[in-house]
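Quick one: structure tokens for this chain, please?
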Amino acid sequence: MSRTPEVPAAAGATGARRTRSPAGTVRLAEVAAIAGVSEATVSRVLNRKYGVSASTREQVERALQQIGYERPVKGEIVLILVPGLKTPVFAAMVTAIESELTPHGLRAFVCPVVPGSVIERDYIEPMLDAGIAAAVFLSASNTLRNADPMARQLLEGRGIPYVSVNGGFPEGATPVVSTDDWRAAELAVSHLYDLGHRRIGMCAGPVGNTPADRRVEGFLEAMDARGLSDAEDYVVRHHYSVDGGRHAADELLPLGVTAIVASSDDMALGAMRAATRRGLEVPKDLSVIGYDDSYLLDFTDPPLTTVRQPVESLAETSVRTLITMIQNRGVQSGEVLIDPELRLRQSTGPAPR
């Protein structure tokens, strides 16, 4: 008696679960007939093997969705590509993402990378056959203009879903979850303006970095809305570091700025250091606002006012989106922006007379 072949759901990323048939089985012939492909092609898609075009893979995925199959998530790996963990906000985001993944049986594999470098590919390539469920680009190559596309293309070639945090790939149509950097700049400028500051400078991140570019855009918009149309003269771009902030502030302070908005907390601390070296007091002579937020900022001298990234919301939204994608259910492409929050401490005060 002939029988439609079935394949058991393999461990890791190779399995699938049908909601209307015994768990752990996929009827290849049924899926192949709906998708208009061979059973071998269906098997390759289920096992995320090479040799299937993107359009064919989409046909098979739609067929799987049509007949009610969901990929299991238990025991699988999610790669988190992040530019190191020395910066507190990245460590906090990785921890939050791990906490959100755990209830779904997913394990995080943290990949410290130089954004856009070959290191991203070096992590992804050997892991492709290890049961990767998904990946998160956390301020990695997704934040760089003209970044090498190989990392995401490796994932797309296997049909492995991924989410980008704080900036998306311009060619990609996958979900992006970001802090609203325009809103962040508005919060900072509004606070300083209300304190009487009019000559406000910005220590911004490097050109071509998506969050840095957006924060500059937001800063200029917020200043222009208040009639301060010469704000572009008070924007200095540098690296996201204490030294970067110090060098940027060394250019701004001779221009007579009374306040500085920084693109990161490290840059803000560098700006405070530059002010101290010139004999200025914060916030008496210069107000400074950072960006990101960490509990350590309560212990700086003075404690740093900053715009806090919504770490928990970013992690929750990113993982919820990933789970939906892993289960082969449709998600809306595009970018979700989450509002930041101004954390007032003691590094900002009234503009000096």
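Residues 219 and 343 are 18 Å apart (CA to CA).
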